[in-house]
Amino acid sequence: MRVGVVTFPGSLDDRDAARAVRACGGEAVSLWHGDDDLHGVDAVILPGGFSYGDYLRCGAIARFAPIMDRLVPAAQGGLPVLGICNGFQVLTESHLLPGALIRNDHRKFNCVDVDLAVENTSTAWTSDYEQGQTIRIVLKNGEGAFVADNDTLDRLEGEGRVVFRYGVDEHGRNPNGSYRNIAGITNERGNIVGLMPHPEHAVEAGYGPSTDGRGFFTSVLKHTVESAATA
Amino acid sequence: MGSIVVDVMLKPEILDPQGQAVAGALPRLGFSSFSDVRQGKRFVLTVDGAVTDEHLAQAREAAEKLLSNPVIEDVVSVHALDEGHDGGHDGDAQQVGAARTQDTAVRTAAHETGEADA
């Protein structure tokens, strides 16, 4: 099971993502943004960070990197792809996922542990979770507010494509102003998942708020093995 | 050398935290007349020689593909910069595609920025 992790100029969490893949039993393969080859990987992670310094819009320039010319059609063809934080921003800029991420409504960068409700366990990246389960992982972003028009939001909810939702505080507010408390979404097929919080920082006891992030990586491992068995 | 100006604004329905921050600072400086602020982006694209229709067509395409994200932003205007002016009120202003400019949201956004050429 080979999981590619793409490094863009300014990627920050690529090594943590690769480490999480290995910690959960997979083989991590480093992919370079300027390389137009996916090297036969079984899944791809777009990691967190600040690709191209977040210039123009977060993820907007990374979206046109040579490797994306390979990744976009592969993802449309069913390759499991996970976008974490900046990776989620790249996925929305690529139009692989709907909506966009804008500056937090409170205008501050925040780094907090968040509780997420798991609302869809049929994606390639979430099958090892229980429907309705709450997981606690870290969120760290300045531009993490998920926005979309109401029709898109209604469609995402109606089709069960909201994968994770933030818990809210006593004022009913989520950590970054995301519309309808949406923390992560998937495409129609369920192979592409994007979220702002960081599962790769919660895979080992003693590091991070929990080991709740492991489910992403064990899920995609099983998904790939099952896909191979039925192929 | 000629220049083409591309103006991009967040759609009116999208929250603009930067504009809000500016709006919050204005009254502290005694500017009490402004009830809201929306912050946009201006790109100046330079070409060799005079600006041609082909340059403008390419600028419009670039504006839609890279300079703006249609999910959250509108391309308010794409026009050649008149060297006699500082931009924003150019006589030869040219609008982006008709479909976009017919959009109420675009006109609203343009109105909000006070663009004379919108």
* Largest interchain contact: A-B, 20 and 13 residues
- CATH class categorisation of chain B: Alpha Beta
| Beta strand count of chain A | 11
N-to-C span of chain B: 25 Å
Domain count of chain B, please report it.
1
Describe this entry's structure for a reader.
The complex is a heterodimer of chains A (231) and B (118). Chain A is α/β, with parallel strands linked by helices and 231 residues long. Chain A has one domain (2-230): Class I glutamine amidotransferase (GATase) domain (Rossmann fold, 3-Layer(aba) Sandwich), CATH 3.40.50. Chain A has five helices and eleven strands, in the order βαββαβαββββαβββα. In chain A, the strands form two sheets. In chain A, strands 2-1-3-4-11-10-9-6-7 form a nine-stranded mixed sheet, sandwiched between helices. In chain A, strands 5-8 form a two-stranded antiparallel ribbon. In chain A, β10 (182-186) and β11 form a beta hairpin. Chain B is an alpha+beta fold and 118 residues long. Chain B has one domain: Mth169, Chain: A, CATH 3.30.1280. Helices cover 33% and strands 21% of the residues of chain B. Chain B has a three-stranded antiparallel sheet. The model of chain B is unreliable at 86-118 (pLDDT under 50). The chains are: A alpha/beta (231), B alpha+beta (118). Chain A binds chain B through residues 56-57, 60, 64, 92-93, 98-100, 102-107, 145, 147-149, 177, and chain B through 10, 13-15, 17-18, 20-21, 66-67, 69, 71-72.
